[in-house]
Amino acid sequence: MFDGLKDKLSGFREDVEESADVEEEPAEGDEPANGDPTSGDPAAGDDAAASGDAEVVAAEAPADAEAEPASDAADDEPSAFQRAKAFATGRIIIEEEDLEEPLWNLEMALLESDVEMSVAEQILDTVREKMLGESRKQVETTGELVESALHDALLDVIAVGQFDFEERIAEADKPVTIVFTGVNGVGKTTSIAKLSEWLADRGYSSVLANGDTYRAGANEQIAEHADRLDRELISHDQGGDPAAVIYDGVEYAAANDVDVVLGDTAGRLHTSDDLMAQLEKIDRVVDPDMTLFVDEAVAGQDAVNRAKEFNDAAEIDGAVLTKADADSSGGAAISVAYVTGKPILFLGTGQGYDDLTLFEPEALVESLLDEE
Ligand SMILES: Nc1nc2c(ncn2[C@@H]2O[C@H](COP(=O)(O)OP(=O)(O)OP(=O)(O)O)[C@@H](O)[C@H]2O)c(=O)[nH]1
Questions:
Q1: Averaged over 42-61, what is the pLDDT?
Q2: CATH number for domain 3-158, candidates 3.30.70.20, 2.130.10.10, 3.50.50.60, 1.20.120.140
Q3: What pTM did the predictor assign?
Q4: Which of 42, 166, 202, 372 has the fewest CB atoms within 10 Å, i.e. the most exposed one?
């Protein structure tokens, strides 16, 4: 999953390792490109330093490095002594300028992978801070340092607002009403059917309510899922009031001890203003326990923009990203939570009813950074 992004992240690691290697070259006695007088220290010839596995001391680069070379050994800068010591112990120092090109390449890679601009910038800021920050005292290999910086940076943006969905269902008063929003054709209805099955696997009953009274054929489509899964479906004729359908779903669930109401909504009306007004009305009338926004992982930036738009109209509690099994760039999965402040809760991973996976930020980050 998200193989393109995975390759690009691995490219960043190689870039940094290459830049760090350049720092080690003075072992041969060459004058370093940056003219740093300490880089030529003979101690840099240490075997460990010459190996690709050299340890790293992360240090803040002086902001005015060019104007004032490291000769003054100011307390808050990587002093000549620190550098000499680093070389003597087979370590290298990562400076801001070593990261410049790799970070630029990383930014391009993230944008090419459809990561939203503000999210890409946040990732870069965290990576820069983690790799140069004073607080990082541990000594690690270049690869480990990059991996840990990327891990923290990605997790920070992906895990925004994450909560335990099953616990939320377990603790809520029944029936729990969940309304699904999102444009047509992204897999909203299929996701409702999948979630009904996911809930049943965990002992929760559910009823489907078709609030998409706009599109011809919507009743038949959801009825097919309800039949196959043997679930009750509440629907009104085409053109009816969607808020009334979902309201009836809640009444039915309360009267029949059903745990969860899963309400579908239209993905398109005459105008997008009509659609947003309809969602606001459902919000007002039904006051759902959760509103989940559904879109395709493959839609990239479009999915991120739509998530923002829908969240503005009827505040969402989380998102479901479908078609994560298709070859997608990964940008939506990285960006939606940071941009909306609401977590991705599920990934759709196929067309079967069991193809719904709880979204786990830590697992996603680990798989993105897995070198296999
Ligand atoms: N590969 C894959 N296909 C999916 C996934 N989720 C849904 N689909 C397919 O996407 C298509 C559209 O899904 P629907 O559930 O009809 O989409 P919708 O958003 O409800 O569309 P409307 O009913 O038109 O609003 C169907 O063919 C689904 O089988 C997924 O996670 N992976």
A1: 43
A2: 1.20.120.140
A3: 0.81
A4: 372
